[in-house]
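Bench notes, afternoon.
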Amino acid sequence: MTYIMAFVIGGLICVIGQLIMDLTPTKVTTAHMLVGYVTGGAVLSALGLYQPLVDLAGAGATIPVSGFGHSLAQGAIEAARTRG
């Protein structure tokens, strides 16, 4: 079941990005999507919404670039807790 959830969640993350690139009237490039996903992952992580997704989907949520934003935000949050 873990593999299925990873596939479904990871696929949905990618489908959202592809739909945004294909359906927007202005041309959204892969660079725009990269920045959007990293920022979105960091914001969702700061709000506490990305970790439940990681717990549910595992690598399906951490392998896409939004997982990189989540990791950056978690590192910053942990450093702020330990060092003030």
